[in-house]
């Protein structure tokens, strides 16, 4: 036998809106309180009727029951930069481009200008430094890495 929850649409939209405006442990505490009050403490019902993530509601209920708040590790999220995944990559790029770059003649910018393209740098890393092509990023990402390292492509003047 399934126990139904009777909440009108305005109450549902108010609960959803309030949860959207909160973050972290405050959001979980609010969801746990609403779940305890309206859904008999069932995270599944809160997920079904309000669309909240069941795991977040369960964690909120656990925090409410124990009185301990779990801290979020937001700084650990996201992908590492390629230079961090391959620690020697930046040094190898500097070595490759050391003789082929020059500073701004008017010294207005700190960038080093080079005529070497990102595709050529990728090819040189594979042939000269023994990197596997599958370990290296795509051409566009290599261009971004070169820009982060202070290199800019300077086209030939004709």
Keywords:
158 residues, mainly alpha, 3-stranded mixed sheet, 8 helices, 3 strands, 6% strand, elongated
Descriptive report:
This protein has helices spanning 9-20, 24-38, 43-50, 54-66, 82-85, 89-97, 118-129, 139-148; strands spanning 101-103, 112-114, 151-153. With 158 residues, the chain is mainly alpha-helical. The protein has 2 domains: 9-66; 82-153, no CATH class. A 3-stranded mixed beta sheet has the order 1-2-3. Helix 1 runs antiparallel to helix 2, helix 3 (43-50) packs across helix 4 (54-66) and helix 6 packs across helix 7 (118-129). 16% of the residues are buried.
Count of helical regions:
8
Count structural domains. 2
Shape: elongated
Average pLDDT rating:
87
| Strand elements, count | 3
Taking the sheet with the most strands, its summary is: 3 strands, mixed
Q: Strand-and-helix sequence, N→C?
A: HHHHHHEEHHE
Strands in their spatial order, largest beta sheet: 1-2-3
Helix content: 40-55%
- Based on secondary structure, the structural category is mainly alpha
Tell me what portion of residues adopts beta-strand conformation: 5-15%
In the predicted model, the low-confidence regions spanning at least 5 consecutive residues are none
> Distance N terminus to C terminus?
82 Å
What is Rg? Answer: 27 Å
């Amino acid at each position: 036998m399934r126990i139904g929850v009777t909440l009108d649409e305005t109450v549902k939209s108010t609960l959803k809106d309030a949860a959207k405006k909160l973050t972290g442990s405050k959001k979980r505490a609010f969801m746990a309180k609403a779940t305890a009050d309206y859904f008999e403490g069932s995270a599944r019902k809160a997920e079904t009727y309000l669309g909240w993530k069941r795991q977040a509601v369960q964690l909120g209920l656990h925090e409410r029951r124990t009185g301990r708040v779990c801290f979020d590790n937001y700084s650990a999220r996201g992908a590492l930069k390629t230079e961090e995944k391959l620690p020697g990559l930046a040094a190898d790029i500097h070595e490759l481009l050391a003789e082929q770059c020059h500073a701004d003649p008017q010294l207005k910018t700190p960038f080093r200008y080079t005529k070497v393209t990102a595709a050529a740098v990728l090819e040189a890393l594979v042939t000269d430094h023994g990197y596997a092509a599958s370990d290296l990023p795509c051409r566009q990402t290599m261009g971004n890495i070169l820009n982060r390292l202070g290199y800019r492509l300077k086209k030939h003047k004709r």
